[in-house]
Amino acid sequence: MSAPLLTVEDLNVSFPGRSGMTRAVRNAGFTLGHERLGIVGESGSGKSTTGRALLGLIPQPGIVTAKRLEFGGQNLLACTESDWQRLRGRRLSMVMQDPKYSLNPVQTVREQIGETCRLHLGSNRKDADRRALAMLEAVKIRNPELVLHLYPHQLSGGMGQRVMIAMMLVAEPDVLIADEPTSALDVTVQNEVLRILDDLVRERGMGLIFISHNLTVVSSFCDRVLIMYGGKIVEECAAKDLHNARHPYTRALIAAAPSLDQPRAELATVTRDPEWLT
């Protein structure tokens, strides 16, 4: 078995406030190989904060500690800002939640993808254009020559998602963190984006961390699933076995999801137990 791309052990993220420290991530630990790893949980469970911590994107005065946080044998906790600039975008990338609005509104698609090529691959303008067109084609954008010269406000939601994915993948990173990349899309476009990500993981051998609140999507798309509650990973299981999960929080989330096969007058609500965080 090959060594994991990413190793996380006892990761904690805290933010100081008037009433003391708020622990957004609590003692999280997992590994990532050449696979699709899902992280699910309610809003505020620490999913996005975990992803940002892996890329050194926790803003001050946030505090990140870990017993071990390694990527390809490199200690991420010891990275300087210049180290992060070499890693982010080139070897580690993240598609932010609602990525269309992470695009620069005053730059064309060509300028934004081209900047990534020039910074991380040393491309000139001609090579950057070639790579950008190839990546737009890879994410199934029709007429990429036209889209290359458009501004973000001229893109539909699905096109904006795909352009952002193209920008994050053009430098061929080893790990991609996708934070709710399909949450704002209709089902047809959502399935197409998932197919694109799946193809890229298989063809390029990337590791993918797929952050979502949608249990149905995660169970059908990912290889493994981490379930987070209150900043803590409370359960890990194979995605295909998610329906057999044992933790009461995971069971509650599954019970609260609507089903066409088993229609109910009322959906179950999650009853929380303080011991889940102990």
Structural description of this entry:
It is globular, with a radius of gyration of 19 Å. Strand 5 and strand 6 form a beta hairpin. It contains nine helices and eleven strands. The chain is α/β, with parallel strands linked by helices. Helix 3 packs across helix 4, helix 3 (about 110-120) runs parallel beside helix 6 (about 155-170) and helix 4 packs across helix 6 (about 155-170).
Largest sheet: 6 strands, mixed
Q: Decide which structural class fits the backbone.
A: alpha/beta
Radius of gyration: 19 Å
Distance between the termini: 33 Å
What is the CATH homologous superfamily assignment of the domain at 1-79 and 207-278?
P-loop containing nucleotide triphosphate hydrolases
**Strand order, largest beta sheet:** 7-8-9-3-10-11
What's the arrangement of secondary structure elements?
Layout: E1 6-17, E2 20-32, E3 36-40, H1 47-54, E4 63-65, E5 68-71, E6 74-75, H2 81-87, E7 92-95, H3 109-121, H4 125-138, H5 144-147, H6 157-169, E8 175-179, H7 187-204, E9 207-212, H8 215-221, E10 224-229, E11 232-238, H9 248-256
Parallel strand pairs: 3-9, 3-10, 7-8, 8-9
Antiparallel strand pairs: 1-2, 1-4, 1-5, 5-6, 10-11
Helix pairs in contact: 3-4, 3-6, 4-6
